[in-house]
Amino acid sequence: MNSLITDYLAEVLDEVRDDTAGEVPTYIPALQKADPNWLGVALCTVSGNVYSTGDSSPEFTIQSVSKPFAYALALQEFGIDKVREHVGMEPSGEAFNELSLEEEDKRPLNAMINVGAITINQLLNGTDSTVEDRVEYIRKYFSELAGRDLRIDEDAVEGELEGADRNLSIAHMLRSYGIIHDEAHDAVLSYTQQCSILVTIEDLAVMSATLANGGVNPKTGKKILDADVCRHTMAVMASCGMYDAAGRWLAKVGIPAKSGVSGGLIGALPGQLGIASLSPRLDEVGNSVRGVTVFEHLSDDMGMHLMNTENRAGSHAVRSITREGDCTTVHIQGIVNFVAAEAIVQVLNQHDFTTGRVLLDVSRIVESHPIARRMLKEGLRRLREDGHEIGVIDPEGELRSRVLDDGSRLPLVE
Ligand code: GLU
Questions:
Q1: Do 314-393 and 2-302 fall under one CATH topology?
Q2: What is the CATH class of 2-302?
Q3: What atom in ligand 1 is closest to the CA of residue 261?
Q4: Choice from 24, 63, 166, 170 to test ligand 1 binding pocket (greatest atom count within 8 A of CB)
Q5: Is 243 annotated among the ligand-binding residues?
Q6: pTM of the model
Q7: What transmembrane ranges does the database entry give (predicted)?
Q8: CATH code for the part of the protein at 314-393
Q9: Where are the domains of the chain?
Q10: N-to-C CA span, the chain
């Protein structure tokens, strides 16, 4: 029954599939290994359920999507105040590889652009760490976030280093102001290795869900980051994560996010879920063209905008399950958004219904989102396919329409 979510995700991908706008960047040779047509999306809920569809198996270099995770590790190690002495948290309004520092105290403006990310990378594992130890420390931590052992694409590192003049100039500038201490080449080597960790969209969805879940990896249950570190990281992602399009993104999509030149895009919706998409062709500011549209659809359809007033929801969506004779009733309650509907559908999916009849009592729903109503109806329809007689207790007409996807009507029970 889980497939109703992946079916929905597949519909979203179908809507954007034919859009061939944008270009795969050429300045990192390894990016040419990507098939420009790759298209995939994955979700991981804070309860640890992962759903993916499309190209979920290709591994690609994480690139700038590594920045929020490296930033979170620095915050975890040194605390927010200490890290702020090195890197600010203001949107830059400039290209990701601009050689820019704050006017007054010469700090990088934020950790989502290269100048800030190189500075953050240099803090990790202590400023006197060797490049090798630092990179291994980062690789291990990324692996914990993903819940599996990740590796580095050394060819990608080599290729990027051959044309890394821009990042080298940034590192020289940082050294000249005493912000970093390693040789410029070592700093760029270390940062480029961080960018060349190989991931899939499922890895990225789990990593983002770990941020959304206050630092506990929902798949492995391991506590990796503190909740205040995650909150701070997501706040900076919200204001600075989408290159020059961060303002428009926050208004339109409203999900703390980060994109990268390899076409990956992540979103972390606090307390709800992590999302990741892959589509390698980029727009003029460097964001994945179809990735942005996928997120726009998800945000709209699933009511995921951070500023939605109906976002307080999710847990305790199933109030009780009662049984009378040959009838089981699942009573649901509260605000039913995507995450709540997912939890309800999981119950419909996993509960061992031994009665012929299964009813869904929606009379205690306070508010529901269109995608959630659709998921509930589809969950019931699939129970009917499994041989149960189904019905709904809905005195207020909360479901709006009782027409199911196959055109049949859901019986109303008094
Ligand atoms: N390694 C890339 C660079 O520093 C990452 C850029 C990106 O993904 O925005 O140029």
A1: no
A2: alpha beta
A3: 8
A4: 63
A5: yes
A6: 0.90
A7: none
A8: 3.30.750.24
A9: 2-302, 314-393
A10: 27
